[in-house]
Amino acid sequence: MGELIFIGLGLCGDTDISLRGLERIKSSNFIYAEFYTSLMSGFSTERFRRMTNREVSVLSRKDLEDDKGELILQKAAQGRIALLVPGDPLIATTHIDLRIRAEKRGIKTTIIHGASIISAVIGLSGLQNYKFGRSVTIPFSDDGYVSETPYNFIAENKERDLHTLCFLDIKAEEGRFMTVNESLKVLSILENKRREGVITPKSLAVGVARAGSEDVAVKAGYVRDLANYNFGEPPHSLVIPANRLHFMEAEALISLADAPEEVKEMAK
After folding, report:
1. Which three-class secondary structure state does DSSP give residue 185?
2. What ranges make up the beta strands (E) of 90-159?
3. I need a labelling partner for 67 at 20 to 30 A (CA). Which of 74, 93, 95, 177 fits?
4. CA neighbours within 13 Å on the CB side: how many for 235?
5. Is the pTM of this model over 0.85?
């Protein structure tokens, strides 16, 4: 049987991939890539083809989700296939499902990890990674329905004095990427509905844009201020800190994310 290699591309550009990943690409029979699970703002498929001297076929959401990756699995049954994935290849459940399907068919799977948005955003926020609770995605509300799941997760984490990493919705095939500003608007709508004081204008938040790029933007402040802050081009991520901070977290937010000096009052 063949082999299916999941290769993480890293966070931003063509050169974020590891040397091991490049070596495996050069020894693969076919190379596929998907870009619907995340936006790599500095990645060019054409530049990547020139760099590796290999053709790369870009897959759609339909190829991997609706068709359950059947195209790749059939190819991998007879040769070595490389699947290029933004960030770390196993963060999206889609890829875990594909790996399980491959293994059940007797296809060997190999993972070559890449830098993850999870570790990058947490590190850039200045908050300590062991104080984060469950992450959550804030979805678009195109049909007028606003999911309360993000509000519930943030409330649960705050109850346990934990931070919340919020992934912001992506509809890559429509060219839509949720901004920090849009996500705060969604949370404000939920607060007006629930009125539990989880996300108020005075709540602290941290926005991160273009993690891993040369022009990364990190800004901490109150919801009322960040709602109109210009973070620039996507991709964006949001962190809602706990009600209390470690003194070093407060210092990091002030020094590294331009937070107001008042956040020192949140330090225990």
Report:
1. helix
2. 108-112, 136-138
3. 177
4. 28
5. yes
